[in-house]
């Protein structure tokens, strides 16, 4: 089986947007291929997919931008519906790139997004047929302070002032002189190197399985969706499980309920929204491969599930506790930090953060077994012989899962 590291580096560029008082009032999220990248190497659908998946399901939108608006560039594929916008309307501003040709299909797609409640920004706006056509649907209009001369900027701003409800953003401000001009022309918002360069936020994310993504996407597009199969496919993929839990907690999801299992997260998000996220992850993770290094996480999750069931606790909650503790180890974060960004029920959160409650006892038992802590195992609520049998069963299940992925890859 071809293997890959269990984690991968993730990067998102974040450039601040300022108001006339010099306060940061929002951020633009940008594709960056590395921690030291100073500009985007790509502005295609792959780049946009990476930004969206990383921002919402790896870092968490709250961690990146707090409660401020964020601007996300969209390519044609997202505007016309070939790729989904998988988050609800909220603090995210959808930015139509200047490279998009505004034909009838793009116009209809943008109109549909506005009717669904999304906020639209027009990037690098120009007073031509293409720009003017989308103007009535825009809330923000961004003008390039480098490529436009003073006469063009003055004329364009004058024309835009006749359009009600517009917020004008001066972008690519790279000198004090252009900043002064932007203030003189009456722009409301400001963005550019003279104020603040894009800062690359980096972290570690789980390497996903492209094969399982495709399998799950096929299941989600069937005429009759089998929820049990969807849950089974998600729970055997730690990366996807973690991302969907994060998606339920994103500021734009509109959900305020807590979840105690992966199944709860899928039901709360809804199969349609899960399908959109998975479709986007297939694009975002196109270069990633499967790996058997995730076996330890799967074994721990399965073992916690079995112990929870033995103690008459919800087995799904046991699986989630084991899964997330393993994910925290893989991405080198404290379990408290991981749990803080997830919409977990009180008993699951207490077990993970403080080791409290009966689920905390489940996790402690499994940790003791993994460390071969005979003293602690002597006080465990499950007999050591039963634990050994449960471990072998979990080992067999994880091996079968990973082998199946390897077989699928060889067939494909």
UniProtKB/TrEMBL annotation:
**Where do the EAL domain residues begin and end?**
1-212
Known InterPro entries for this protein? dGMP_Pdiesterase_EAL/HD-GYP, EAL_dom, EAL_sf, HDOD, RNase_Y/CdgJ
Q: Which segments constitute the HDOD domain?
A: 206-397
Q: Which organism is it from?
A: Virgisporangium ochraceum
This protein's name: Diguanylate phosphodiesterase
């Amino acid at each position: 089986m071809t293997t890959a590291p269990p984690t991968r580096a993730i990067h998102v560029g974040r450039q601040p947007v300022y108001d006339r008082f010099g306060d940061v009032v929002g951020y633009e999220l940008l594709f960056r291929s590395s921690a030291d990248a100073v500009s985007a190497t790509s502005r295609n659908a792959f780049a946009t997919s990476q930004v969206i998946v990383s921002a919402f399901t790896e870092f968490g939108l709250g961690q990146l931008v707090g409660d401020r608006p964020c601007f996300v560039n969209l390519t044609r594929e997202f505007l016309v519906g070939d790729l989904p916008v998988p988050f609800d309307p909220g603090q995210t501003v959808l930015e139509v790139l200047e490279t998009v040709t505004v034909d009838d299909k793009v116009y209809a797609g943008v109109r549909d997004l506005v009717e669904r409640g999304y906020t639209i920004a027009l990037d690098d706006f120009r007073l031509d047929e293409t720009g003017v056509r989308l103007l009535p649907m825009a809330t923000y209009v961004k003008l390039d302070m480098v490529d436009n001369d003073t006469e063009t900027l003055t004329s364009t701003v004058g024309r835009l002032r006749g359009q009600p409800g517009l917020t004008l953003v001066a972008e690519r401000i790279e000198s004090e002189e252009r900043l002064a001009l932007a203030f003189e022309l009456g722009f409301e918002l400001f963005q550019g190197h003279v104020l603040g360069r894009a800062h690359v936020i980096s972290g570690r994310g789980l390497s996903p399985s492209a094969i399982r993504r495709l399998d799950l996407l096929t299941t989600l597009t069937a005429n009759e969706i089998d929820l049990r199969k969807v849950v089974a496919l998600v729970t055997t993929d730690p990366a996807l499980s973690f991302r969907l839990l994060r998606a339920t907690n994103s500021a734009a999801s509109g959900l305020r309920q807590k979840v105690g299992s992966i199944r709860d997260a899928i039901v709360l998000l809804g199969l349609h929204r899960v399908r959109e996220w998975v479709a986007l992850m297939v694009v975002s993770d196109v270069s990633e491969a499967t790996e058997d290094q995730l076996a330890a996480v799967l074994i721990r999750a399965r073992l916690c599930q079995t112990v929870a069931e033995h103690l008459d606790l919800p087995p799904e909650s046991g699986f989630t506790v084991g899964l997330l503790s393993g994910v925290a180890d893989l991405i080198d974060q404290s379990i408290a930090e991981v749990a803080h960004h997830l919409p977990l029920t009180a008993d699951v959160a207490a077990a993970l953060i403080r080791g409290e409650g009966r689920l905390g006892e489940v996790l402690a038992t499994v940790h003791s077994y993994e460390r071969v802590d005979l003293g602690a195992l002597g006080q465990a609520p499950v007999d050591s012989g039963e634990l050994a049998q449960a471990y072998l069963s979990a080992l067999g299940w994880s091996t079968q899962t990973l082998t199946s992925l390897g077989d699928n890859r060889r067939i494909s």
